[in-house]
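FYI - complex with 619, inputs then prediction.
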Amino acid sequence: TGLSRPQRILKAVQKNATKGNPESVIAAIDHYCRHSEWAMNVGDEKGLILDSVVTEVNPSTALELGTYCGYSTVRIARLLSPGTKLITLEFNPDYAAIARQIIAYAGLQDKVILVEGPSGDLIPKMKQQHGIKSFDFVFLDHWKDRYVPDTKLLEECGLLRKGSVLLADNVICPGTPEYLKYVRNDPRYESRYFKSNLEYTKVEDGLEKSVFLG
Ligand SMILES: CCNc1ncnc2c1ncn2[C@@H]1O[C@H](/C=C/CNC(=O)c2cc(-c3ccc(F)cc3)cc(O)c2O)[C@@H](O)[C@H]1O
Ligand SMILES: [Mg+2]
């Protein structure tokens, strides 16, 4: 039955991007998803907000929940200082396989550790498997009903420290009402909403940035 959407996105990267050039990989995916077929990448508009938060935090340790095709993985990893790593979790092996190829095409494979499996099982293993003390930055972009349980799990596993920054995609569309309630009502978080649009559309969406106060 032909190629999957992630496979078609990989083909667009291989056709239109330059190997080793992350900007061209990002541009190729955005062009394809804007003009050929929509896909759930954070996209170019919300991507600029993601870029500015990553640049501001300049994390030594970063975590992404939900790799999908690796679009935001490339956006984040291209901004990391030498010697720092982005750990990205993806439980769909087909998506993981495509993401690995897109991350490698961008030349960022040495800055990214893609771990296959569900976040609920993998988060408790971060310390012992990857020598992580805590995460400076976490990008949440996986199943929307998992944002709250995984945030609580990060807290319980001692993976958040004073000043850790959580950035959550899709807090308006598809929406994460429980998560917004959680981070906006809990005094241990200082939250701010960055208004934007759903990737490649004029529909409102936005990112919620929440600083853990410890
Ligand atoms: C079980 C929870 N743990 C998980 N651990 C690891 N990976 C996980 C997990 N959940 C989901 N994933 C992976 O994350 C990705 C899922 C992302 C879910 N995202 C969305 O549903 C989403 C959906 C939309 C959207 C918006 C408007 C629409 F009309 C239709 C769709 C826009 C977005 O930006 C989105 O992020 C997949 O690659 C999936 O395999
Ligand atoms: Mg998203």
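The pocket of 619 (ligand 1) is lined by residues 40, 66, 68, 89-92, 95, 118-120, 141-143, 146, 169-170, 173-174, 198-199 (CB under 6 Å). The chain has a mean pLDDT of 98.
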